[in-house]
Amino acid sequence: MLLYTKSQKFHYQLATLGKLLTVLVLFLAAFEPISAYSCEKHESTNQITFGNPEAKLAVTQHFSLGSTEFVRFAKEEFPVFKANFIDTGLVSWTFCPHVTDLATIQLVSCLETLSFSQKPLFFDRVLLELSPRTFGEIPQILIRSLEDLSISEKKIELLQLLNLGEFFNRSAEFLNQKVFAKPPSYIEIGERIFNYLIYPAAIRYQIEQQL
């Protein structure tokens, strides 16, 4: 009975947090996005890498989780690239987050608690649930994705009490910015940079040319 009450209270807190995030996102929408924090290319604690880091070709995709264009690419196009190039050992593909929205702030907070091998598993689970209709449920999606990795209840509780506190501190700093950035839409293929909103066939061509 105690465990049920505790779990019920925990999920109630998540629902409240989701509503608060929705309000904050609407507040941010009033600002014209022009600049922000940029992903540190070699800062592995915040990045998600699929495939062998020693593969022949390295691809780095810059993103923010609140971008509907990125979510569409990651859910529809990325699995094809993964099957053809990553799972075959030819390419390593790294997702490099840029904090241009509150969803990415919280994603980064979770990534910092995971090992290198857990990050792609976690990200797969997040993408499975994520869609433009579920953006207001980001906190719940992140927690469920951690639970799917069999992260202990004690660790999830710690994330709730500590990381979300840090998340709100970061959010406050984010809201105090005078200007905000547009979500990044570029991808590094080897030493060359392209916009990943172009046709997937063009990205595939560039990968094949460099292999």
Protein architecture, described:
There is one protein chain. With 211 residues, the protein is of the alpha+beta class. The protein has a single domain, classed as Glutaredoxin, CATH 3.40.30.10. Helix content is 54%, strand content 12%. It has seven helices and five strands. Strands 1-3-2-4-5 form a five-stranded mixed beta sheet. The longest helix has 27 residues. The N terminus is likely disordered.
Descriptive labels:
211 residues; Glutaredoxin; alpha+beta; 7 helices
| Helix segment tally | 7
Q: What percentage of residues falls in helices of 4 or more residues?
A: 40-55%
The second-level CATH architecture is 3-Layer(aba) Sandwich
How far apart, in Å, are the first and last alpha carbons? 58 Å
Largest sheet: 5 strands, mixed
Give unreliable regions as ranges: 1-17, 19-38
Q: CATH class, anyone?
A: Alpha Beta
Q: Mind telling me the CATH superfamily name?
A: Glutaredoxin
- From the helix content, strand content and strand pairing, which structural class follows? alpha+beta
- Give the topology string: H per helix, E per strand: HEEHEHHHHEEH
**Approximate strand percentage:** 5-15%
The radius of gyration is 18 Å
* Order of strands, widest sheet: 1-3-2-4-5
